[in-house]
Write a structure and sequence with these properties.
282 residues, alpha+beta, five-stranded antiparallel beta sheet, 9 helices, 13 strands, disordered N terminus
Length: 282
């Protein structure tokens, strides 16, 4: 009887916030911070460099959104070079049509929802400088690395605008979380990454309107427990990655998991971290 009553009493006593047990995640690297204060909430191999896959596109978006006098309605004509690049690399695509005029805003949706490497290349080509596509995209990657320095991403080096790496495209959970925290200060970025589906209307060569097939967000966690972004990534070597942000009852967390062994494990890891973050802050 006594033991039973002890158990009953114990069940009613809420554990103090600092006693929340840190979760175990299967991803090789993970990091979580309080997005309001920047305080670290969880860390696992947070400064170990790993391949970033398509989470790289968050930096591409950050550089674009940091342009002075940015016009989101500026039109970009889709070049054959972008579709050639997709074919050559077997890359994920927003299925942009050569010759169509697409706005910068639409390219951000195509890149961040559908993870279109063609959309990422179009943005890099638009905002890089030089006389050729190759020169402009290379110049854009330099801007990505300059931005990484500005944000204090000390363990990051980009060699691509989309995560299709030549082996040197590496960052850390801590650095990518810093990037996401900065990028999510943009209202445009926040609006785009929390969108589950987006249908772009582009202008064809002949001036007619083309309604594209809807771009569905690759982030299946959207809406779960306050999740409002940010970007998935996956690759043969990079495995499964996710930069995530969530807000609930005025508590905001932001973080990254890198090199999870499967999509299911990545999802489970992130859910654990979000729940843990809320419990730690409250």
């Amino acid at each position: 009887m006594t033991t039973g009553s002890l158990f009953a009493t114990g069940a009613l006593t809420a554990a103090p916030a600092q006693a929340v047990t840190a979760p175990t995640i299967t991803a090789k690297g993970g990091f979580l911070m309080n997005s309001a204060t920047g305080t670290t909430l969880f860390s696992k191999s947070a400064d170990t460099k790993r391949l970033t896959a398509s989470t790289t596109k968050v930096m591409t978006a950050k550089v674009v959104l940091s342009q002075s006098n940015l016009n989101l309605d500026a039109k970009v004509t889709i070049k054959k070079a972008y579709s050639d690049y997709i074919v050559a690399n077997g890359a994920s695509s927003a299925n942009l049509i050569v010759g169509d005029k697409v706005t910068v805003r639409q390219l951000l949706y195509g890149m961040l929802l559908k993870s279109g490497c063609d959309a990422a290349m179009a943005l890099a080509d638009k905002y890089g400088s030089g006389s050729t596509v190759a020169a402009r995209t290379k110049s854009f990657i330099s801007k990505m690395n300059a931005m990484a320095k500005t944000l204090g991403m000390t363990n990051t080096k980009f060699d691509s605008f989309d995560g299709i790496s030549k082996g040197a495209n590496a960052s850390t959970p801590r650095d990518l979380t810093k990037l996401a925290r900065s990028a999510m200060k943009s209202s445009t970025m926040k609006t785009v990454v929390k969108t589950k589906s987006y249908t772009a209307k582009t202008i064809t060569k002949t001036g007619s309107t083309r309604t594209m097939a809807a771009w569905k967000n690759t982030n299946t966690l959207l809406g779960w427990n306050g999740t409002l972004g940010v970007k998935t990534g996956s690759g043969t070597e990079a495995k499964y990655c996710l930069i995530f942000a969530a807000t609930k009852n005025g508590e905001s967390v932001i973080g990254t998991v890198l090199t999870a062994s499967s999509e299911a494990n990545r999802t489970a890891d992130v859910k654990k971290l979000i729940n843990y973050g809320y419990a730690k802050i409250s």
